[in-house]
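Entry 14. Structure prediction run on the chain below.
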Amino acid sequence: MNPLKTEVRQFWERIPCGAADANQAEEGSLAFFEEVEKQRYTGDDFMAEVAGFDRWQGKKILEVGCGLGADLRQFARGGAEVYAIDLTEKAAGLARKRLGLYGFKGNISISDSETLPFKSDSFDLVYSWGVIHHTPDTAAAAKEILRVCKPGGQVMVMLYHRRSILAFQAWLFYGLLRGRPFESPSKVISERVESPGTKVYTPKEGRELFPGLKSITVKRIVTRYDLRIGRRLFLPHWFRKIVPSRFGWFMVLEGQKI
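Output returned:
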């Protein structure tokens, strides 16, 4: 495995995304999953509208990088036939347990987003939320997402946005205030934000990753992370409504495969 990819896998094996939100509950318990879900959909209260979990009844969907399976469960609850991959054993195992606890079935495998273990033209929706900017070859992951999506199917991918408040904050605290004013936000984020090598994109760069999509839309979302003023301290939620969306950390690309 690529050394950087090994570092990325080890980072997320230690603490899957969202697990820290439920550190008072036993990992893998119903209380654990309930708390993770509460924190996710309270903090990111736009998810149901943006992802459209209930639009895929009877359809076959793949989530690339399912983490603890919060979104996957929402798709399953909406009646979709769900498949998922994750790079880590821990997340894949917890996501399987989560579906089982709620009485849903799904096919969840440990795999790499750069080499998806599915036949071409297999899924009505390929969905990935905040994942492929962590893999070393994001372009390869985007190509694989397009490959496994059916012609006429939908792709929805969230990437981190370079021209965001959070990216500026990262540069301010880890660049300018540490005597590195000429470090780019991209380099600072690669070194400091989440797993090693995290990447950020402009809308133009995001579109260029998916040349096989038509009618591609780009939606930028101001998040709670843009409002962070301390390690666990955030500005009030209503600030999101007065900050222009073009400065949001989340950038959601959606389009139909040609």
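The mean pLDDT is 95.
Filed with the rest of this week's runs.
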